[in-house]
Amino acid sequence: GGGRGQPGGMATVAEAEPAGAGPRKFSFVYIPCDDGEAFQEWQIAPREGHEVGCLVDCVKAHFHKKLPRMSEAQRAEQARRLQASLPEGTSVSEQMLRLATEIQMVDAIPLVPCKPETDWTGVNMYVDDQGAFKELPQNRRAGDILGTCGVRERVVHGDAFLARLRDWEQGDVFERLDFTLKELNSSADWVKVARRAHG
After folding, report:
1. Which residues contact 30 (CB under 8 A, 6 or more apart)?
2. What count of other Cβ atoms lies within 10 Å of the Cβ of residue 125?
3. 28 φ, ψ to 5°?
4. Is the pLDDT score of 2 beyond 70?
5. For residue 83, which phi and psi values (nearest 5 degrees)?
6. If you write DSSP's letter for every residue of 141-184 in order, what string do you get?
7. DSSP-derived secondary structure letter, 76
């Protein structure tokens, strides 16, 4: 049935620039890991030329600020896994491995892929790609959304975000589009498209 959790407030992440100064403000949804915390609709007004990276930068900053960093034991395990994933014979210094484990990365899970049949418009869930290493709690509501959209075998650890974009590389088109709280319900059109995509 309908939305999960209670709607929260609106938060503006960046101040809007003067009219005509750049891309327009867009909305996206914050899905806190804590079931007691309401969903929130956030907004960003990207700077000119920063429309592609503005959302990921905002999400990275949130994960970096709010969530715990990896312990030394977790960092060592992450470094071991990174080293094991490199081609045989590749040499990487301890300093480079340490830097790699300190970088805050964001994983974008495509719920509605950008394809011709969707007019290159998609919906992604953005999560902390180190959430499991940090031993963050599972985000039950984000997991429910993934399941409702037909994305199986995926567990979200920590907070998550939902956002819409239009990305058509061949047409040199990229824009951030609104994704609002009222769209968080299992009968929304985007959920039906997502189910078909992952069916």
Report:
1. 8, 11, 39, 40, 41, 42, 159, 160, 161
2. 23
3. -150, 170
4. no
5. -60, -40
6. HHHHHHHHTT--S---BS-EEEEEEEEETTTTEEEEE---GGG-
7. H
Amino acid at 57: D
- CA 137 to CA 80: how far, in whole Å? 23
Residue pair 181/7 in contact (Cβ under 8 Å)? The answer is: yes
Beta carbons of 115 and 97 less than 8 angstroms apart: no
Residue 191 has pLDDT above 60, yes or no: yes
Q: Which phi-psi region, left, alpha or beta, contains residue 113 (left: φ > 0; alpha: ψ -120 to 50)?
A: beta
Instruction: Taking the CA atoms of 29, 169, 52 and 138 in sequence, report the sign of the dihedral they define.
Output: positive
pLDDT confidence bin for 135, thresholds 50/70/90 = confident
Q: For the residues 32-43, what does the mean pLDDT come to?
A: 95
